[in-house]
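Deadline looming. Please check this record:
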Amino acid sequence: MATPRERFLAEMRGEGDGVVYSNIRIGNPVWKEHTEKFDWMPEYSPYVGVGLGKEPGMVADTEVTDVWGCHWRYPLQSLDGICIGHPVADLADLDQWEPPKAEEFTDWDKAAENLQKTKDDGGVAVGGTDHGFMFLRMTYLRGFENFMLDVADPTPESVELIRLVEEYWADVVRRWIEVGVDQISIGDDLGLQHALPVSPEAWRHVLKPSFERIMSQCKDAGVEIHLHTDGYIVDIIPDLIECGVTTLNPQDLVNGFDNLEELALGKTFIELDIDRQDITVFGSPDEVDAHIKRCITTFGSKNGGLSMVWGVYPPTPYDNVEAAIKAMVEYATYWTNGG
C-alpha cells in the first residue's frame, strides 16, 4: 500500500489513483453545540480526515501585536481576528520600522529534524508561510485603504515596503527548501466576494513579480507550491499557475464551477474549498450530498487531481455535517469504481 508521501508525489505527477481525499475542520463553536455527536467522525473513514475544534482558541476581545508590529483584535472566540493597528500606515514611518527576521520564523534545526522524520515515516514534508503572504500582509502593514492607494499610485516608499516583505518571504522559502520540504504552503486571500480588490492589471504590475520571484525558488528546486486563497480569483488563476502554483485551494461557488473547470482543471492539482456560505449552511442534507458529488464528478478523474477541504462554522447544522462526511466517503472512490 502506498504511503501518503508516495500518493502525494504521484498526484503531483498526474498519476493519482482516482481516490478523492478530504479534510473537514469543525470549528470550536460548532463542536461546542453538539460535542459528543461528532466523536464518531475522526475514525469514520481513511478517505476523510476530521479535526474537532475542542480547544477554544483565542478568547473573545483578546488583543495581540504580531512580529511585524501589526496589532490585532479578536472579537469572537475561536474565529479570526481583525488587524486594527498598522505600523506603516504612514509611509513616513518606514525608516523606523523593521521587518521580522527569517531566521526567527521557526527553529530551523528542529524543523529539519522533524521533516526528515516525517519523510522516514512515509509522510509529506510540508513547510509554509503565515496566512498573510504578500497582499494580505501589505494590507495589515498599511491598512486596506492605504494599500489600495499604493496600488493606484505607487511611490518609492510603497515599492520599498513591498520589496522588504518579498525579501522576508523569499528568505523563509529558501530556508524551507534547504531543510528538505516536499511542498511549501502559502496563504494569501486575494479575492473579495465577487471580484478582485484591485484590477487584474494592477495585480500583475504590483504583486505578481513578487509571487514569481519567491516561487521561482520552488520551481528550480522541484518543490511543490500549495496556495490557499479565499475569494474570487478567476481573473488571475492563469497567472498563479504561471507563477508556479502546483496545488490551488480556491473556493468553489465563489469562483464558479465553470470558471474553475476552464482555468484550473488539468493545469494544477485542485484542493477544492467546499462552500461554507450557502448550500452546506442553509441547504438540506440531500443538497449537501448532491453538492459533494458534483464537486467530485466535475474536478476528479481516474488519474486524481482533486482533494477537498471544508471548514465548518456557525450556523452549520449537525445534519449537514453528517451528510457531507458520508458523501465524501461514498464518492471518494467514484473514479476507481467506474463512476
About this structure: The chain has one domain: 4-55+102-129+161-330. The mean pLDDT is 96. The domain at 4-55+102-129+161-330 is CATH 3.20.20 (TIM Barrel). The radius of gyration is 20 Å.
